[in-house]
């Protein structure tokens, strides 16, 4: 099976705890035999901090995006270090290069690619590009809600939904550098057009990735439609 795993920077690098990065590496190494694994790493709080400094210095949104991309690549490199020999040794910068690196039969790790979206979209585009069977998005919430649960306590969590329903929920999200939504609107549209099965789950517990891979009911499953 070919799987793309998107790991939010906020769940990979929590309190600068190297054990957390190691825990993700162990889970990925457990899935890797007999499967092709691609990982996309986000920028998290560090990206948002650097973006806000850039913005305060007068940088426009595209340049702030570029700052965010650089941070995602640094985080991606830390995961490569934790994966040791199991990973392709460099952070891939383009979808084409990821496809070529796959031939090395190692876990392929990417960060951001270009301004205007987040690593949610990168992982969806990569999943389409490499013809993945499954996209797992490990983030800091336990699934997709009808609206932001921090703002609206009445919001409902979906166990299953269509990609079209996901697009309806996230389409009005702002695209500013560093903005947050469970999946960014570009990512949601690419998930919709590709029809790739996607699972959004709580990445604060790395073993949840393993549970999703084994077919356990977890997070929100997004199906074609
Ligand atoms: P992230 O993908 O980390 O955003 O990219 P996020 O949704 O905040 O993710 P996590 O879950 O907290 O890690 C950080 C920022 O980097 C820029 C955007 O500004 C994004 O908000 N970025 C990232 C890009 O412009 N292009 C990319 O391909 C990736």
Overall pLDDT metric:
96
Low-confidence stretches: none
Assembly of the depicted chains: single chain
Percent range for helical residues?
40-55%
Say how many strands there are.
Answer: 7
**End-to-end span in angstroms?**
22 Å
Per CATH, the architecture is 3-Layer(aba) Sandwich
CATH class placement: Alpha Beta
Approximately what portion of the residues adopt beta-strand conformation?
15-25%
Question: Can you give keywords for this protein?
Answer:
alpha/beta, Carbamate kinase, 44% helix, globular, binds uridine 5'-triphosphate
Give the secondary structure arrangement, pairings included:
Layout: E1 2-7, H1 9-12, H2 18-31, E2 36-41, H3 44-56, H4 61-83, H5 95-101, E3 108-110, H6 119-130, E4 134-139, E5 160-162, H7 163-170, H8 185-194, E6 197-202, H9 207-213, E7 220-223
Parallel strand pairs: 1-2, 1-4, 2-3, 4-6, 5-7
Antiparallel strand pairs: 6-7
Helix pairs in contact: 2-4, 2-9, 3-4, 5-6, 6-8, 7-8
The chain binds uridine 5'-triphosphate (UTP).
Would you kindly provide a written description of the structure presented here, covering whatever features stand out?
The protein is α/β, with parallel strands linked by helices. The protein has a single domain (2-223), classed as Acetylglutamate kinase-like (Carbamate kinase, 3-Layer(aba) Sandwich). It is built from nine helices and seven strands, in the order E-H-H-E-H-H-H-E-H-E-E-H-H-E-H-E. It has helices spanning 9-12, 18-31, 44-56, 61-83, 95-101, 119-130, 163-170, 185-194, 207-213, and strands at residues 2-7, 36-41, 108-110, 134-139, 160-162, 197-202, 220-223. A seven-stranded mixed β-sheet has the order 3-2-1-4-6-7-5, with helices on both faces. Helix 2 crosses helix 4, helix 2 (18-31) packs parallel to helix 9 (207-213) and helix 5 packs across helix 6. It starts with a strand and ends with a strand. The model has no long low-confidence stretch (mean pLDDT 96). The structure holds uridine 5'-triphosphate. Residues 8-10, 42-44, 47, 64-65, 68-69, 72, 112-115, 117-120, 122, 139, 177-180 line the site of uridine 5'-triphosphate.
């Amino acid at each position: 099976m070919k799987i793309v795993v998107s790991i939010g920077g906020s769940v990979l690098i929590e309190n600068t705890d190297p054990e957390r990065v190691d825990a993700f590496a162990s889970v990925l190494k457990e899935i890797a035999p007999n499967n092709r694994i691609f990982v996309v790493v986000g920028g998290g709080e560090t990206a948002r901090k650097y973006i806000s400094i850039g913005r305060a210095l007068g940088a426009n949104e595209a340049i702030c995006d570029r700052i965010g991309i650089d941070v995602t690549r640094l985080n991606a490199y830390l995961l490569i270090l934790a994966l040791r020999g199991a990973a392709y040794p460099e952070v891939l910068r383009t979808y084409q290069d990821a496809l070529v690196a796959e031939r090395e039969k190692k876990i392929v790790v990417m960060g951001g690619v270009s301004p205007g979206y987040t690593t949610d979209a990168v992982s969806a585009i990569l999943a389409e590009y490499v013809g993945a069977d499954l996209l797992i998005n490990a983030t800091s919430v336990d699934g997709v809600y009808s609206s932001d649960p921090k703002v609206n306590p009445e919001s409902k969590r979906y166990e299953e939904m269509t990609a079209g329903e996901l697009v309806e929920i996230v389409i009005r999200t702002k695209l500013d550098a560093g903005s947050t939504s469970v999946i960014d609107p570009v990512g949601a549209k690419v998930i919709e057009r590709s029809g790739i099965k996607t699972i959004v789950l709580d990445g604060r517990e790395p073993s949840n990735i393993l549970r999703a891979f084994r077919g356990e009911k977890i997070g929100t499953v997004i199906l074609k439609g």
